[in-house]
Amino acid sequence: MSSLIQPEIFFSALPPAEQRIQKALEDIRQGKPVLVMDDFDRENEADLIVAAETLTVDTMARMIRDGSGIVCLCLTDELANHLELPPMVTDNSSHFKTAFTVTIEAAEGVTTGVSAKDRTTTVKAAIKDGAVASDLNRPGHVFPLRAREGGVLTRRGHTEGTIDLARLAGLKPAGVLCELTNPDGTMASGIQVLSYAQTHHLTVITIEEIVQYRLQHNL
Question: Is position 156 annotated in a ligand binding site?
């Protein structure tokens, strides 16, 4: 089935945006992933997103299995600086200026670092209360991303959307994301995202809806 579908047709199959945002925030609090789509004229893809604080090994395994395998930890600039995570490159020439830092691994409690359990351990080491730079080895198998201050009101990216959702859910401002893929390895978009969400009972929201929710509620 083609993934091409008009936005108004796609969203007509879903509950109202406000209702879905509220459901997404409750899911985030419970450690359940949500699907966040970016603008149809941007990447037109969906990311599986979960708060770092409520991340479980099972959810990490799902993200690795059903996603691209590039699991990213979204952090505030403040925490990334505190953990001494420099940019991955000095000259970021990527199309959307995605702010990757050097990759990380937990300094303790992991083996090769690549398993779902090890990657979860790495995430928890980075966001725990009192975490310091020496709690992490570099390089590793988790890809930190620096979010822009101001969230989606500043940059309409999944990185900022992830931080905003964690904050709005009342959790630490850190989250984990991975791009959703199809079984054949292609990127999921449009109706493929909706089909996956329905199969796995996941909430679908968009970056634009997070923007509007924040503006409407002065958040």
Answer: yes
